[in-house]
Write a structure and sequence with these properties.
Blueprint: E1 9-12, E2 19-23, E3 28-34
Antiparallel strand pairs: 1-2, 2-3
Length: 52
């Protein structure tokens, strides 16, 4: 990677608050996700990956 280049990863979407968008190192992709902590966790909800 050239010096000064932004590395691939998830970054806040400046167009939509509360959302992040994936930068592939060259261009923005169409992949979106909620920002961590953007949505409250329901009381009593367990943290984890959803496996029972």
């Amino acid at each position: 990677m050239a010096e000064g280049q932004t590395p691939p990863g998830w970054y806040p979407d400046t167009q939509t608050p509360g959302r992040q968008r994936y930068w592939d190192g060259t261009q923005w992709t169409e992949n979106y996700a909620p920002l961590a902590g953007a949505y409250p966790v329901a009381p009593g909800a367990k943290k984890g990956h959803g496996c029972l």
